[in-house]
Backbone:
């Protein structure tokens, strides 16, 4: 039911936009910002279930609307999402040429963050000094045991 209502909403938006560039003529209004903020992620994101995304891509005027706003206000992002759902010629493992590097960097950043938190919160500490294998603390513990 949720998908049906969302599809109906997209269809109604498409009918309202018609062949106009923006919902209220040739210049954007706050409604355009609101609608774009909901349509652009739906159009650009990789979703596990693409039913709604495919319906949006079938509504050419909404697709062109998003592409126009993307190219006008976000030129570095482009607006090619309406043309092809997936890049042609890329295999399953070739989606992102830097995928392995990004994964490794993410793991390293996570590790550094966890270690930093452990040090700063006092969970882990580094003791400096000339404490040998028979360090001071075990001796102190033995002395305490003898006193009892």
Residues:
């Amino acid at each position: 039911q949720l998908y049906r209502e969302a599809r109906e909403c997209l269809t109604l938006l498409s009918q309202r936009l018609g062949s106009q560039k923006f919902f209220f003529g040739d210049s954007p209004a706050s409604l355009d910002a609101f609608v774009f903020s909901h349509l652009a992620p739906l159009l650009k994101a990789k979703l596990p279930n693409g039913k709604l995304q495919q319906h949006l891509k079938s509504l050419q005027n909404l697709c062109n609307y998003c592409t126009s706003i993307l190219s006008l206000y976000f030129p570095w992002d482009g607006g090619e999402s309406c043309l092809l759902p997936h890049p042609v010629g890329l295999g399953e493992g070739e989606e992102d040429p830097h995928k392995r590097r990004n994964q490794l960097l993410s793991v390293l950043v996570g590790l550094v963050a966890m270690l930093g938190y452990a040090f700063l919160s006092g969970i882990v500490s580094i003791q400096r000094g000339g404490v040998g294998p028979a360090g001071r603390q075990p001796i102190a513990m033995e002395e305490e045991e003898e006193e009892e």
Q: What stands out?
A: The helical segments are 2-17, 30-44, 51-58, 60-73, 99-121, 136-147. DSSP finds six helices and no strands in the chain.
